[in-house]
Amino acid sequence: MNTHAIRLERLRDSFQRKKLDGFCLVNVESSDRSNLYYLTGFSGSFGVLLVTKDRQLFLTDSRYITRAQEIISDYEVLELKGRVTTVATRINRLKLKNIAINAPTTSTWLFHQLRDRLKKTRLVPVAGLVERLRTVKDDSEIRAIERAVRLTDKAFEFILGRVKPGVTERELAWEIEKYIRTHGGDGLAFESIVATGATTAMPHYEPQDREVQKGDFVLFDIGAKVDHYCADLTRTVVVGRATAEQKKIYKIVLEAQERAIKNLRAGLTSKQADAPARETIAKAGYKKNFGHGTGHGLGLDIHEAPRLSPLGKDKLQAGNVVTVEPGIYLPGWGGVRIEDVAVVEEKGCRVLTQAPKKKLIEV
Question: Which of 315, 325, 313 is nearest to 261 (CA)?
């Protein structure tokens, strides 16, 4: 049984356990592209899945029908003519009592349009059926993430040689994107964060035309996407000689991250996985300066379950791939974040990221 056939059977088990007769996924303008790709290997911007206990249909329009027929072997591939609401006609033909639809990625308008056109089938909004399957990665997924991580490590090594007084944040971000796209990447996993000086205190900053100055922190939060899978790396460097205060904050964040990585393993709750980094930073006196979670899952999307957070309710499993990224942010002064990608294992974790971090890099 191939990978997509295995995933299809796991999906069937999931919706049947909920006493549902079928599952519908509608990907319009890439609204549910990752789930669709996970289940079929199809990456186009439009496609509809209809899965019952004994049938599976893939519907797409004339733009993609030939490609879909070439690459999808586990589904009946049919051309959908007319508006997307004609999916209701297909559902009616299946004669089901009920069918689940992936609610988070289905617009309210489309949900009501489909529901109103169904004759005897109840449309049931559900969340997380496919996403929960995606949290534990198989070997092929982990290998794809490793390739994305390796390219991201190389992009960081490359960009260090471009950091100098006078270069702008936007210029650095553009150089990173060019490197990734010209060295085998599909593109960016997310828009690069390049922050300098006091803006490094903003965790999700957008690069501007600010020029790098001597003495600045420069924070890079970057990621390549390779074979549809994401990487995520954060490193903080300093331009010129680091001050004692910069070295101090960096050392605290590094210790927090190393403690979290050492603790990371299957069976932990989100809160337990988050605690070592948070406690280290709090003990150093910077509790109020670390406002986000310690990490998150990643894969086809840059943010997936499980979360490493005091508010999270997930339980870590072997095969989860997560980030570990504590930080300290001091408004008006700057901030430090250090982030690696790791595979959760039964008795620990395997860190994929290899970019240097043991010392605050001076460029």
Answer: 325
What is the distance between the alpha carbons of residues 328 and 287, in angstroms, rounded to a whole number?
Answer: 9
Compute the radius of gyration of the chain from its Cα atoms: 23
List pLDDT tens digits, range 231-241: 999 999 999 99
- Distance, in Å, from the CA atom of 139 to the CA atom of 3, rounded to the nearest integer, reads 11
123 lies in which domain range?
3-134
* pLDDT bucket at 327, cuts 50 / 70 / 90: very high
- Per-residue DSSP letters for 139-151? HHHHHHHHHHHHH
Residue 167 predicted with pLDDT over 90? yes
Domain harbouring 229, CATH code: 3.90.230.10
Cβ-proximal residues to 342 (8 Å cutoff; 6+ apart), any chain: 261, 264, 321, 322, 323, 324, 349, 350, 351, 352, 353
Task: Tally the domains of the chain.
Answer: 2
Query: Do both 123 and 7 map to the same domain?
Result: yes
pTM over 0.85: yes
